[in-house]
Amino acid sequence: MTNLEKKLVALIFVVLLVGLGGGYGLGFAISQHQISMLRTEYNSAKAKYDELTVDYADLNETYRELQTDYAQLQSNYTDLNSEYGALNETYQSLLFNYTSLDEEHQVLIIEYNKLNESYNILIINYTTLQEDYDDLSSEYQILFSDYNALVKAFNEPLSYEVIPTTYELELWLEEDETDKIWYEDPSFVCGDFAVMLSQHAKLEHWDMGVVGVFGYDENYESYDHAFNAIVCTEGLVYIEPQTDDFWWYTDHEEISEGIWWEFPEVGNVYVEDYIVILLYD
After folding, report:
1. Please, which residues have CB within 8 angstroms of residue 52's CB and are 6 or more apart in sequence?
2. Sheet of 222-232, strands arranged across
3. Pairing relation of β-strands 222-232 and 208-217?
4. Which fold has domain 162-278?
5. 238-262 residue pLDDT tens
6. Distance (Å, whole) CA 128 – CA 130
7. Is the dihedral of CA 57, 58, 63, 66 positive or negative?
8. Judging by DSSP bridges, how do beta strands 235-240 and 208-217 pair with one another?
9. Where are the domains of the chain?
10. Which tens digit of pLDDT belongs to each residue from 191-210?
């Protein structure tokens, strides 16, 4: 029997003793009705007691279950707290790694932007170089074609001859670029200019020769020079290959030795020797 049950029995017992003592003291003055009421109250108290006993037992069972659940929850909490600590440690490590990687990423972005800028510059330079290469390749093809033609002209005689007019000669000289070559002594001098121009003329099937004069000018300074000669429809014409100047003398006569002759940009020259270096017809 529990303490609660013992207290309830003692309480009922005291109530009965008091009732009985009072009844005897009053000479059995308590009526039958009062006894009936006490029994009713006792039965009511007994019923409440039984109900409380059942409730207590239920509460006690619920308490034990709650204790068990609490113990389980406490165990789960301990496990979860341990896992939280491990996860937090992992998170801190990942956060540190992320921060390091983010810093490296920012550095890589800067380097990438620099490389991309350099790449764009290289693309521009490459495009420019490609255009220059294409231009040079085109010029090379033209020069190579001209070179082959000059080789053929130098090594083979004219298959047929065309005699130009002085007007055609003038137009051709404007197009020809022999005069654009830089004079350099001794690698490329007057004789080289004259031979070059005669070979270019050969591509037009013109028979252009090279001549040389030796003498002195009006100041009696030595004058030695090579230039070109060609017979046009009008007659013999002389050409200065370095300037594209061309001229002829009275009746298109040929230069002879022992007299004075006028030359463009030079003036009068006394010709001691006149040499036909490359024949013209």
Report:
1. 4
2. 245-247, 235-240, 222-232, 208-217, 267-278, 260-263
3. antiparallel
4. Beta Polymerase; domain 2 (3.30.460)
5. 999 999 999 999 999 999 999 999 9
6. 5
7. positive
8. unpaired
9. 3-83, 162-278
10. 999 999 999 999 999 999 99
